[in-house]
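Title: Prediction job returns without error message
Component: structure pipeline
Severity: low
Priority: P3
Assignee: unassigned

Description:
Job completed but the reporter wants confirmation the result is attached to the right record. Sequence as submitted:
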Amino acid sequence: IVMAILSSAADIAIPQHTVFASEIGLTGELRPVTRVNQRISEAEKLGYQQIFISKYAKYDKAAFSKIKIHAASQITEVVKTLFG
């Protein structure tokens, strides 16, 4: 929801085949979510090309080859990566 709002405010579309899996704290920090391996796996199966997760999430990096995993600690890092 936050990325949709930021995308709308900047009038820049979120790239297709992009998904997000983290919680956002009040100061903009990205917090890990449960079952992150399962979420990444499902996103990969559904054809998503990139996923943004918390850098504090524990996941099996070697298990995923079809999806690019971006790990960030702050929402500002995600915005920079997506919108430049």
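Comment from assignee: result matches the submitted record. Helices lie at 2-10, 36-45, 75-83.
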